[in-house]
């Protein structure tokens, strides 16, 4: 295998192994990006095949707010599930957020909680303009995705914003293979793609490691 192939493999391994289960993301510069991947559970029991992702890009910093571009994707395995819907997403914010606005077709609330023992959330974003964190119509079905902007307001402009405690709300869950009929549940993070700064540090480390090995062979 050539040098570039080895470096690519090591780099991919570091991304996967170093971030499994991580869910805290700090944004401080326009363009910062991260993606969260979720599994799913029903009645607090993990189930096969349910999967989704949310990507976050810091698009703008205003006088007292951070504006994010967000994409929600439902990547559920359609060989196991006839139907599944991500109807809500939620997370916590540090520092304390004072206002929140989402662009159509999504609607954002301050506070709330998912059922299924997930617990309270600072921000709940739902796939339609009525209802609450617990559930309702709207959202993203299997194989679908939806993008929107989200503005988080603060009493004074922070130097950085940290998001954590990510979750999704699953509804309309039908699986003949697994024996579920119109069930609902929640989902927690499984992996996180690092932000650009983390990717750069990992890339430098991998490059140095590979170059050292190449010099030794020479």
Q: Quick summary of this structure?
A:
With 218 residues, the protein is an alpha+beta fold.
How is this structure best described in words?
18% of the residues lie in helices and 46% in strands. It is built from 2 helices and 17 strands. The chain has 218 residues and is an alpha+beta fold. A hairpin with a 2-residue loop joins strand 3 (41-42) and strand 4. Strands 1, 7, 9, 12, 13, 15 and 16 form a 7-stranded antiparallel beta sheet that branches. It has one domain (23-217). The longest helix has 22 residues, at 196-217. The two termini are 16 Å apart. Helix 1 crosses helix 2 (196-217). The model is unreliable at 1-22 and 197-207 (pLDDT under 50). The radius of gyration is 19 Å and the shape is elongated. It has helices at residues 3-19, 196-217, and strands spanning 25-27, 33-38, 41-42, 45-46, 52-61, 65-74, 83-94, 99-102, 107-110, 113-114, 119-120, 123-126, 140-141, 145-153, 161-175, 180-187, 189-193. 31% of the residues are buried.
Spans where pLDDT lies below 50 across 5 or more residues: 1-22, 197-207
User: What value does the Rg take, in angstroms?
Assistant: 19 Å
Strands, count: 17
Q: Judging from the principal axes of the Cα atoms, what is the shape?
A: elongated
On the 0 to 100 scale, the average pLDDT is 83
In this structure, how is the largest beta sheet organized?
A: 7 strands, antiparallel
Strand content: over 45%
Quaternary class? single chain
| Share of residues in helices | 10-25%
How many domains? 1
Give the class from helix and strand content and strand pairing.
alpha+beta
- How far apart are the termini? 16 Å
H/E element order: HEEEEEEEEEEEEEEEEEH
Count of discrete alpha- or pi-helical segments spanning 4 or more residues: 2
């Amino acid at each position: 295998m050539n040098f570039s192939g080895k470096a690519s493999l090591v780099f991919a391994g570091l991304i996967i192994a170093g971030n499994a289960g991580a869910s805290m993301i700090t944004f401080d510069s326009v363009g910062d990006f991260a993606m969260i991947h979720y599994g799913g559970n029903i009645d607090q029991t993990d189930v096969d095949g349910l999967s989704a992702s949310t990507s976050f890009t810091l698009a703008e910093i205003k006088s007292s707010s951070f504006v994010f571009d967000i994409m929600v994707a439902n990547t559920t395995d359609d060989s196991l599930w006839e139907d599944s819907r991500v109807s809500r997403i939620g997370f916590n914010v540090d520092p304390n957020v004072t206002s929140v606005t989402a662009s159509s077709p999504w609607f954002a609330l301050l506070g709330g909680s998912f059922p299924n023992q997930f617990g309270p959330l600072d921000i709940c974003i739902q796939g339609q303009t009525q209802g609450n964190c617990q559930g309702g119509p709207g959202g993203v079905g299997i194989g679908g995705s939806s993008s929107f902007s989200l503005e988080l307001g603060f009493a004074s402009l922070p130097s950085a914003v940290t998001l954590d405690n990510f979750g999704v709300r699953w509804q309309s869950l039908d699986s003949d293979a697994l024996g579920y009929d119109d069930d609902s549940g929640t989902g927690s993070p499984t992996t996180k793609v690092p932000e650009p700064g983390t990717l750069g540090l990992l890339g430098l480390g991998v490059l140095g490691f590979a170059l050292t090995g190449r010099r030794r062979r020479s």
